User: What shape does this take?
Amino acid sequence: MSKGKSIWLLGERGMLGRQIAVELQRRGLAFLASDREVDIADFEALKFFSRGKTISWIINCAAYTAVDHAETDREGAFRVNARGAENLARLAAGLGARLVHFSTDYVFDGAARRPYGERDEPRPLSQYGASKWQGEKLLAANWPAAFIFRVSWLYGVFGGNFVNTMLRLFAEKDAVRVVNDQFGSPTYARGLARNIVRLVGSDSARFGLYHYCDSGVISWHDFAAAIMERALEHNLLAKKISLIAIPTADFPTVAVRPAYAALDNRKVVSELGFEVRDWRANLNDFFAEKIQRASVPS
Assistant: This one.
């Protein structure tokens, strides 16, 4: 693929968007970037930004991700996650551009006791999950040259996520309560970003729906315990604190979360050749990345 400005990265200031921007720069791939200044729910705004530009790939990291707030702001969630996805598909069709879009494990109800595959029927429990599933359907109906990646339990060095929240709470409190009856597979943002950038760099045309996550299934509580262990090993935490396992019933949230949200990632490996690592190895890499970034003068 040409190193000219043929890639458009949307949602560039979010957790995954920032990570993909880093990887694009590392690979020497020039790209256009936008964030909230270009509203994906406004088709005219998308057309205006793209006018006169040669765009062969669109990477959409823009999304409405406030899971609990979406329960009372259904219109806002569907505006971005559904209409926005449809608009990008229509725009990509007009440009003849390949499209990368991210969805979520929250499209499932969590009733399974085995990792969900791409052929399993979505049954979202929340407005957020429903808005993302609607976005998938609208995107697929409007443009076939698209990759849709359902991702679970995403975390990284940028922005707010479970790992960074746990590190903050461990430093502030003497005890932290974490649910132990919700299970899934963590996803390290840098690992995902590197796979996506390799995909774009290869100009792949193996379009379709894919599940992506790190290997292994774990509870939120056990994930928190692993985070604390690594933080202590790297001297990022002064002392071990009490980590209390609780049932979901003792930690009510506005939106219902799936009790089991693990994804089957075999297709993304066999069809796209993605490198998928064990969640433990990627958590180690997260801490190495975090320490390395902290050592670089701003």
DSSP finds nine helices and twelve strands in the chain. The chain has a mean pLDDT of 94.
